[in-house]
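Notes from the 1:1 (GR / supervisor)

We went over the backlog. Supervisor wanted to see one worked example end to end before approving the batch request, so GR pasted a single chain during the call. The sequence is below; no edits were made to it. Supervisor asked that the structure be written out right there so they could see what the output format looks like.
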Amino acid sequence: MEKIIQVVMGKGKLMKYELDVSNRLKNLMQLAAPITVADIEASIKRFVLNNREVETYADSTGYDLIYDGERYPPKAIFGLALSSILDEQIHSYHFTGGLGSECFKVLTRLNFEIVSKVGRPIKELGLTPESKFPKETRKTKRPMIIGDIPGIREGHYFKDRKEMMPSSFHRVWTSGIDGNGKQGTAAIVLSGGYSDDADYGDEIVYTGAGGNKEGKQVGDQTWLQPGNAGLLTSMDQGLAVRVIRGHQHKSPYSPKSGYSYAGLYRVVDAWQEVGNEGFRICRYRLVYSDENPDRIPSDNTNLEYLKKTNERRAGSILRLVRDTKISKSIKKLYAHQCQVCGTAIRTKNGFYSEGAHIKPLGRPHDGDDSVDNLLCLCPNHHVMFDKGMFSVDDDFTFLGDAEGRLIVHPNHHINLENFKYHRSSHGYD
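Structure output shown during the call:
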């Protein structure tokens, strides 16, 4: 007797999957159609990082996937990739491997080499040629389009997710993030799937993908998940991201039905923290960056939130008036020498350095604009520090992509709780 199971897809999208009498997915090829080469490569990396072990998957017995001269179990790698794009754990018993299997067909369609344990390529063993694959598996994925799409303006209404796909507005109806680490992220959907999401109109604090089931976090998220990696790439390259709000997203800006296009946003910050359900999640801060002359800014939007004790100046968008004297005092204390590399950049009018906040000022970090939360850094190390490429231990030794110890002036007291926050946000604790 066939069974129907309900799972939460992507950002809370409730779907129904049919299982056959053997507990296997009946529509595997349809579900696997969006898998890309980048998804398989990311799965291989996760497999290696997890000591080459995946729950319910055993080592391969007859065939190996060859990648960069190394051998990997094809079924486990495929299962990881499918679990990633569906944002739902797919186990070994949900599909089959081996000659003629849908799993092998998808891998060979993506030009991955699979050989028998004795070294013979599966093409020599009679695998069905790609020209005979089911029609849907021969389709190339719609191209990713970053930024505006002609004919779709801010406020555009979509009845459902499928309406977004033909134009490449949002190409994957099974996930809230349309992106990957190589190209960046084209679009995200806010659909109420993550309790940690926060929507302030012109500013959004967005939760990445992974570890979510039925609207609850049941496992940790990682930066290696393709959608999460895509948002990091968009942040690093300054790429605009289309934001869509769904009717299930709990926000005064959400439509009562269907989905509405909120405009272009840019990812300005990324970090990790423990979420409401007790698991580690990837977090992103996005700010509105579109050019819509008819748009009325959100009343409660503040692009640089600080604690209430800081002075604010009223305007159409509230902006903090920072005390630049604090930053200047740190730069003067160190004579503009970077506390990481000791470099002081000479300019026509003297020297240049940057005041770097250890715990970020913007919501939701809520760091203080104070001396004990500031470092004097050169531009390169400022960017690397903000991006989490290195952090600082309590004894001021560097962690990550920096060597040695932080230069600390005797008169500069640093609140070690700020370093603790930075380490936790970027996975060093």
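Supervisor's comment: Residues 37-49 form the longest helix (13 residues).
Batch request approved.
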